Amino acid sequence: MASLVLADQTRPLRLSEQQISRYGQLYGEAAAKRLAAWQALLQDAANLPEPQKLDAVNRFFNQVRFIDDIDHWGKEDYWATPAEFLISNGGDCEDFSIAKYYTLRALGVADERMSLAYVKSLELNQAHMVLTYYASPEAMPVVLDNLIGEIRPADKRPDLLHVYTFNGDNLWLSKKGRRAELVGTSDRLKPWTSVQSRVENNSVNLNSQEP
Questions:
Q1: Could you tell me the pTM of the whole model?
Q2: Number of independent structural domains in the chain
Q3: Which residues form the domain of 67?
Q4: Which helix (H) or strand (E) holds 153?
């Protein structure tokens, strides 16, 4: 049964050699190489223990360039799919977090163990997003962040003020790094429902964006 679940979670992220070749023709050889490396990660990390999966995925995506949405997409706020993020070789904190979330889910990490956390970066004095991972429901989650490469427990990141957190199903208010109060389902977040739909349909919408 576990293999069937893994296959279902992996399906939207799997790209054939023909698809990668086509994206390479459209967006350049470097884009195709990034996509191929991502597909190799999905294959190579599948049987690793979860802490090693977290480390491998965090390191892989933290190599991508950070670019503000307005400069990269010409929009104030755009949540990219992992494929869009890699093809364009850039994105902001939401894009890093979404790519890590979906890749880890495809690697068999349970959805209930992960949350995309909307926080305030106190050092930068601005909104930020990270991915959090709970080894168990009662555990202090660890933070996967594009600002700091080291994966640390949330209580060891005093620079982050947690506001709310969500995953594929639910939305919580958060406090001191943890889920504090369930306030509804995550489909209340329109950018999230949009990116979920595009991931599920394996669609890429880069418009005139250059890689």
A1: 0.92
A2: 1
A3: 2-200
A4: strand 152-153
